[in-house]
Design a protein that fits this description.
The chain has nine helices and no strands. Helices cover 61% and strands 0% of the residues. Helix 2 packs across helix 4. By secondary structure, it is mainly α. The protein has two domains: 72 residues; 55 residues. The protein is elongated, with a radius of gyration of 28 Å.
Length: 170
């Protein structure tokens, strides 16, 4: 049972052949173009390849071929060539208040027995203080990366400011 039948016009075939022969596109776009060209059942295609042949020759799964064919039939040529955007929306665990508390904690003295705060230590402490239910060290890293709380940068700014003041006084 064939669920999705790909029929390309002459213009679409020419565009896909040009796209697959030039090296200016990503490998997935070229691969999707080759899939559509191989599955074409239109009047401009002399011989159609089966999904099994395409899977073996292009070294891809049958499921990939079905996904490309279904996207072409349901959404059109442009959507079939490009990667589908994810539908899932992720909820953010962090807000401004959480970020402020995290930055304040990271600037404070580390616990006894530690010379400095680690990302995992900060994540564990934020959960312990019940600011958040769970959080990974990677989420902590991303929050701290967004801020300008880099102590090395602060020292550099003070140094540049001092040099500027000294040069103005001369």
């Amino acid at each position: 049972m064939r669920k999705y039948v790909v029929t390309l016009t002459k213009e679409e075939r020419d565009a896909l052949e040009a796209l697959s022969s030039k090296g200016k596109h990503s490998s997935q776009v070229v691969l999707n173009a080759l899939i559509l060209l191989g599955c074409d059942e239109g009047e401009h295609q002399p011989q159609r390849s089966t999904n099994e042949e395409l899977s073996r020759v292009l070294n891809i799964s049958m499921r990939k071929i079905d996904r490309v064919k279904s996207r072409f039939v349901l959404e059109g040529l442009d959507e079939a060539l490009t990667k589908k955007k994810p539908d899932r929306i992720y909820d953010k665990k962090t807000d401004g208040d959480f970020e402020a508390r995290l930055i304040g904690l990271s600037c404070s003295e580390p616990p006894e027995g530690y010379s400095r705060w680690s990302l995992r230590l900060l994540a564990d402490k934020m959960v312990e203080l019940e600011y958040v239910d769970t959080i990974s060290h990677e989420a902590v890293r991303q929050v701290l990366k967004k801020t300008n709380s880099n102590r090395g940068e602060l020292r550099r700014r003070k140094y540049l400011l001092t040099r500027t003041v000294i040069s103005l006084l001369r």
